[in-house]
């Protein structure tokens, strides 16, 4: 904390010495002479802006020399440009004309306010209103709108968030590596992937940047970034309330209240809660499981000591406590093991039958309860001080994550693994200081420093414990000693580990306008990462014996492991972009960049070879990324956009998660593939027809391959063969569909009075599809998921300021589909599935008040 305060002191000193300057003042009206409330006024090319008050008045401080241009925008009006060559002698009167064309989307990813079509970055922008109306209340649902995003989650801890198929290891999470997709909320980096499973709270906008972004963001991002902004405190009173009801007992409530506390203080409090009954049925307990039980709260306090300084204090807490994330047995793969070691023979010998062999019957008989206690929150202090032609920003944050799980990792009603509980606690401290703005009339950019300190430890220990059926699944010979009564009953491992990390970086990116049409954007980053892990795993329980033969059998299942690793790595990366804008309607760009994913350490146990722990696998090499893309953003008309981009990413020492037949290697282990390549083409377009019809769509072709992975573990069906490793060079990367796309739109009526409200009727629909993809790090013919298409729709009326009611449906055709397939612990042959949601439907009632 002392280090964070030291970083913050220069900002506070500069804020205290900020002095008053002249400002441009004025009033914004429409063609009828009515004030336009909430219109945005921006000094073009900067993030200096003002919001029109309830009388349409604004005051924007001077932050650059004349001449400059003001951009004035508001929903439903044409974008207006006002060029100023000197300070006006009196207030400006600006009149906005009504517009049925597409609204220009303003983004902040480059640390300034600018329109998405004008930035030389492949970016998808989803407004908070679309997030709410489409029912995309978390990242997993958001991926149906942005097809280049992939999210896989067998529970909050074991969550993979990827863009273009890369970013994080596919499958079960290993805490010793960093994600490659940055996840930011109001400028604060969230290190734990569990954050992506929580509900959004009071979202203003989601920006999804594709490709490495290490020269713009504090934490290194090799695959892309989610830049999420929430709605900020307002100096005019406002309130939003929403409640939704649906089948499966679905209830979701949201609320946000904001307003002034004084002339310089404003506050905002936001709440979100979601509950739903389970979609699986446990035939033993006679209960539905895989329910939703989410709760989130966010509070913000805004202080504006002057028109140059903005200080925001934010606190949030989100929790999940479902009896959820259970998986159902989806099938059985014959392995190369002897007949007595095949899954079907094993369960026949134990007189056991699965409750159903059709996973979409949604029946389970798990004898270990599923628990996914996921709690995440923190406090952040953000200071923006306008200095010269830009803004100096300090973001100080502390965050925590508490994880309290229980899993049935054998996916059956047998007592194979009767306990699987990786309780953990995580704390992180981050500090970012950056300056973004104009350096000269032709040169602008951003420069910053970033530090992150993390501490992840078991709470108090991770436990894996066998039951009385473990002997039959682990049996690897015909010796009768395997059936010794009580040999494995209660036999398990307790792991105590701690991972402490530090990451530091200096980063920057310039935008040099050689001419008004040609821009060169170089960027550079220096990164340093250090990780220290202490790992201690001890066996306990089972039959207490001195018989060396019985002890040898127990050691086949679990062994003691102790190792320490202390690793560090530094690197330099960068990017160079050339942008060409021959007209306002065309923005062409080409980017070459290098990036690095930090060094890793294995933190889930190590495999053995010849009875010895393979400690050489404790350290995982950093990824080295070379990335190229070329694209064109176009506006063929005021009512349309059409963009296309080609991308190619080559990764050396690709960090991959691999499954092992050893039960004691919890969550698999990490390895480096020599080289992988991902390339593809992405298209997105939008169209607005008058004020009544709006359409949008995206299409992505992605080809991901292991260029070289000569020592990969064998797939599930080759377990038990003569080789434990296989050359899978040329095989498909997991989790990537060659084709994915989404299309949607909305039809809106003319304004009218509905239930006493100034409102419009609307009908909206969207569809998401993806082709088949591999669900195994080593390609397996049994762990491929068929492609599927989902349809969603909504209809109702939307008030401009008041009551909104609409009905909605998701997966309207009730498509049965898998989101993920994963082998059971020990590779006995059976594998389980994360099932997609069945058809859901309901109604949403929303009330908004803005003074």
Automatic annotation (TrEMBL):
GO cellular component term, pick one: cell outer membrane
KW Transport (keyword) present: yes
Primary location: membrane
Keyword annotations: Cell outer membrane, Ion transport, Iron, Iron transport, Membrane, Receptor, Signal, TonB box, Transmembrane, Transmembrane beta strand, Transport
InterPro entries per UniProt: Beta-barrel_TonB, Beta-barrel_TonB_sf, CarboxyPept-like_regulatory, Plug_dom, TonB-dep_rcpt-like
GO biological process: iron ion transport
Membrane topology: Multi-pass membrane protein
Signal peptide: 1-20
Pfam families hit by this protein: CarbopepD_reg_2, Plug, TonB_dep_Rec_b-barrel
Record localization: Cell outer membrane
Residue ranges annotated for the TonB-dependent receptor plug domain, each copy included: 116-225
PROSITE patterns in UniProt: TONB_DEPENDENT_REC_3
Sequence ranges assigned to domain TonB-dependent receptor-like beta-barrel in this UniProt record: 367-812
Family that this chain belongs to: Belongs to the TonB-dependent receptor family.
Entry protein name: TonB-dependent receptor
Organism: Chitinophaga pinensis (strain ATCC 43595 / DSM 2588 / LMG 13176 / NBRC 15968 / NCIMB 11800 / UQM 2034)
């Amino acid at each position: 904390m002392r280090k964070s305060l030291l970083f913050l002191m220069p900002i506070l000193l500069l804020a205290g010495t900020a002095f008053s300057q002249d400002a441009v003042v004025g009033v914004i009206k429409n063609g009828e002479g009515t004030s336009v409330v909430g219109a945005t006024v921006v000094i073009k090319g900067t993030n200096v802006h003002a919001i029109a008050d309830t009388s349409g008045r604004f005051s924007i401080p001077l932050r650059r020399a004349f001449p400059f241009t003001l951009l004035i925008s508001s929903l439903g009006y044409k974008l207006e440009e006002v060029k100023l060559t000197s300070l006006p002698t009196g207030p400006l009167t600006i009149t906005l004309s009504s517009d049925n064309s597409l609204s220009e989307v303003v983004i902040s990813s480059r640390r300034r306010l600018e329109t998405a079509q004008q930035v030389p970055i492949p970016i998808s922008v989803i407004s908070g209103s679309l997030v709410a109306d489409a029912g995309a209340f978390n990242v997993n649902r958001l991926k149906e709108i942005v097809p280049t995003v992939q999210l896989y989650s067998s529970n909050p801890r074991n969550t993979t968030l990827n863009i273009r198929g890369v970013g994080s290891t596919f499958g079960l999470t290993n805490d010793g590596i960093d994600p490659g997709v940055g996840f930011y909320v109001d400028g604060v980096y969230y290190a734990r992937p569990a954050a992506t499973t929580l509900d959004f709270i009071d979202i203003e906008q989601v920006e999804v940047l594709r490709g490495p972004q290490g020269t713009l963001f504090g934490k290194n991002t090799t695959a892309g970034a989610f830049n999420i902004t929430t709605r900020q405190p307002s100096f005019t009173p406002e309130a939003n309330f929403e409640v939704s009801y649906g089948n499966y007992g679905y209830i979701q409530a949201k609320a946000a209240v904001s307003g002034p506390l004084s002339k310089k203080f404003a506050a905002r409090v936001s709440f979100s809660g979601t509950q739903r009954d389970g979609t699986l049925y446990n035939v033993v307990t006679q209960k539905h499981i895989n329910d939703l039980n989410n709760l989130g709260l966010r509070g913000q306090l805004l202080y504006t000591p002057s028109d140059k300084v903005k200080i925001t204090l934010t606190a949030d807490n989100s929790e999940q406590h479902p009896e959820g994330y259970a998986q159902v047995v989806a099938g059985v793969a014959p392995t190369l093991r002897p007949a007595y070691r095949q899954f079907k023979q094993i369960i026949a010998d134990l007189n056991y039958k699965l409750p159903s062999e059709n996973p979409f019957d949604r029946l389970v008989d798990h004898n270990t309860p599923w628990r996914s206690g996921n709690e995440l929150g923190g406090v952040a202090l953000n200071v923006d001080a306008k200095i010269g032609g830009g803004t100096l920003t300090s973001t100080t944050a502390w965050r925590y994550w508490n994880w309290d799980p229980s899993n049935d990792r054998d996916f059956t009603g047998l007592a194979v693994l009767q306990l699987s509980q990786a309780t953990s606690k995580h704390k992180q401290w981050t500090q970012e200081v950056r300056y973004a703005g104009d350096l000269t009339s032709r040169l602008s950019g951003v420069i910053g420093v970033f530090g992150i300190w993390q501490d992840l430890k078991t709470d108090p220990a991770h436990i894996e414990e066998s039951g009385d059926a473990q002997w039959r699944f682990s049996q690897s010979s015909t010796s009768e000693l395997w059936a010794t009564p009580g040999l494995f009953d209660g036999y398990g491992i307790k792991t105590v580990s701690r991972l402490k990390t530090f990451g530091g970086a200096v980063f920057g990116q310039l935008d040099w306008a050689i001419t008004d049409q040609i821009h060169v954007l170089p960027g550079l980053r220096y990164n340093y990462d250090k990780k220290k892990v202490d790992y201690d795993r001890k066996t306990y329980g089972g039959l207490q014996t001195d018989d060396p033969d019985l002890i040898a059998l127990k050691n086949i299942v679990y062994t003691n492991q102790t190792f320490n690793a202390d690793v560090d790595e530094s690197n330099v990366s960068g990017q160079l972009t050339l942008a060409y804008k021959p007209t306002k309607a065309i923005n062409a760009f080409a980017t070459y960049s290098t990036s690095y994913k930090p060094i890793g350490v294995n933190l889930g146990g190590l495999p053995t070879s010849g009875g010895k722990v393979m400690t050489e696998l404790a350290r995982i090499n950093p990824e080295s990324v070379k990335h190229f893309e070329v694209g064109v953003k176009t506006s063929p008309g005021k009512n349309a956009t059409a963009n296309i981009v080609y991308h190619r990413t080559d990764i050396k020492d690709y960090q991959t998660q691999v499954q092992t037949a050893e039960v004691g290697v919890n969550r698999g282990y990490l390895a480096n593939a020599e080289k992988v390549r991902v390339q593809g083409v992405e298209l997105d377009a939008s169209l607005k027809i008058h004020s009544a019809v709006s359409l949008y769509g995206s299409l992505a072709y992605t080809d991901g391959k292991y260029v070289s992975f000569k020592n990969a573990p064998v797939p599930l069906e080759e377990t038990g063969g003569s080789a434990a490793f296989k050359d899978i060079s040329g095989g498909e990367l997991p989790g990537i569909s060659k084709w994915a796309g989404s299309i949607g739109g909305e039809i809106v009526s003319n304004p009218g009075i509905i239930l006493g409200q100034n409102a419009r009727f609307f009908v909206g629909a969207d569809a998401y599809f993806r082709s088949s993809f591999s669900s195994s790090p080593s390609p397996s013919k049994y762990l491929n998921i068929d492609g599927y298409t989902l349809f969603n729709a909504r209809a109702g009326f939307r008030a401009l300021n008041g009551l909104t009611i609409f009905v909605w449906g998701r997966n309207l055709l009730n498509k049965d589909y898998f989101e993920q397939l994963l082998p059971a612990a020990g590779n006995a042959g059976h594998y389980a599935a994360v099932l997609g949601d069945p058809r859901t439907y309901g109604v949403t009632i929303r009330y908004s008040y803005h003074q």
